[in-house]
Design brief:
This protein has 112 residues and is of the alpha+beta class. Helix content is 49%, strand content 19%. It is built from two helices and two strands. The protein has helices spanning 2-17, 21-59, and strands at 85-94, 101-111. Helix 1 (2-17) runs antiparallel to helix 2. The chain is elongated.
């Protein structure tokens, strides 16, 4: 709305320079209405923000936490040792400019 307001103020100034009082007053009235609307919308936004923050503070309920001791089960089987593995791989690579393959990839895949 600010660009419209500034445009109307500039147009009113130009109309006053041309001695066109009726047009100048129309631009001033329009600029005044835009300023009123702009300030009203900013005020409504501020009131909404304050109301939201106030509502959040008034209705806040802290989280309830509780803990219960639990029995840790005993392991009956021996734990298996992890095994490391390395596997080579070869795969085709797609071309960047269309369908088909443009080369290949060679690498090593591992787990540990």
């Amino acid at each position: 709305m600010v660009p419209l307001y500034l445009s109307d103020v500039r147009a009113a100034s130009e109309a006053y320079e041309r001695r066109d009082r009726d047009t100048a007053e129309a631009y001033v009235d329009r600029a005044s209405g835009l300023r009123y609307a702009n300030r009203s919308l900013y005020g409504a936004c501020a009131v909404t923000a304050v109301a939201g923050i106030t509502h959040a503070h008034l209705t806040f309920q802290p989280e309830d936490r509780s803990s219960r001791p639990r029995e840790i089960p005993t392991r009956t089987e021996p734990r298996a040792k992890p095994q490391a593995s390395l596997l080579p791989f070869v795969a085709p690579a797609p071309r960047g400019d269309g369908p088909g393959f443009g080369g290949g990839m060679v690498g090593v895949s591992g787990r540990f």
